[in-house]
Amino acid sequence: MKTIGRSLLIVLDGAGIGELPDAAEFGDEGASTIPHVASSVGGLSLPNLEKMGLGAIAPIAGVSPKGTAGGYGKMEEQSAGKDTTTGHWEIAGLILEKEFPTYPQGFPAEIIDVFSQKIGRGVIGNYPASGTAIIEELGQEHMETGKPIVYTSADSVFQVAAHEEIIPVEELYRYCKIAREILTGEHAVARVIARPFVGKPGAFVRTKRRRDFSLPPPSATILDILAESGFEVMAVGKIDDIFAGKGITQSIHVVNNRETIDGVLKFMTGGERGLIFANLVEFDMNYGHRNDPAGFARALEDFDKWLMEILKAMTDEDLLIITADHGCDPTAPGTDHTREYVPLLAYYPGLNKRVNLGIRQSFADIAATLAKIFGVRGTGNGEEFATLLEV
Fold it and tell me: pTM higher than 0.70, yes or no?
């Protein structure tokens, strides 16, 4: 058996790999993010992911099914929903039986009126929209009136957009904290998101100072258990926001894929025992939601190149796990997340064979595997695959 002292868990946000059996109930019949992206561009070049077995999970144009070294499979989501928070929480061992509330008609007056009263000004918007589209539609009115733009999406989110010269970023964050306090009980949305932007009408650009204010997980996740057991839990990307800081001992908060890889590499130089947990948000945010399969393809190929830097930096006691949190098929109708299986790839130095991890019944199998390799109690959900990997 292989001894593991550190696990690198990388989530490719939105990179699903085929419709789940219940996809039609979510309006996502036929969704298949990575395979459809590959087909749309005539094939992908992903030599490192191919070696780990990505092409053996599903047919992907340009990617051979004959991986040579790695564990491969796919995971089914047990939680109700297809959003970022639900997916990450299940990866960490928490399965939700009830979906977070969504607002396809906008938020009710009982929410908006209280929010407006508490921030001392009215709002504009209050309907589902693309974040880039709504600032183009309402940005000039926002600048003229000083009223923040409130909007939502198919996800359980309350988003507040404001021009940094009209409402300073720290003030925008304060508004979002107020919204987070209001949105409880039946209106407990998964995330309140601050969306600052700059520029002039016709040329508005969202800035990197986005911030998410998430509900805290209602019970212990594998992050809490590892931290309480003396292991480091090192978060990169938006992981700290998704878990509201719970169970995280160190954090590097960044918003693009390259910076996230750099954060992972930085933590790897420290040599601490524990978990490095990273989210690469651009697949979802920049390409899935914007129906841009070509951009999604480029991002996958970039990640594959950068992956070699991580593989070279790994030690003999490292385990790498690559997965996703949901689908976001850029070729599907609409701009929403899609209810899909997610890929599961696992590798450690010295693993020189293919290991079929099969179809896992829950994302929580990752949490169970982490509990097994670190010798800590589990969350009670999921089945470990460490034994299949001989770790």
Answer: yes
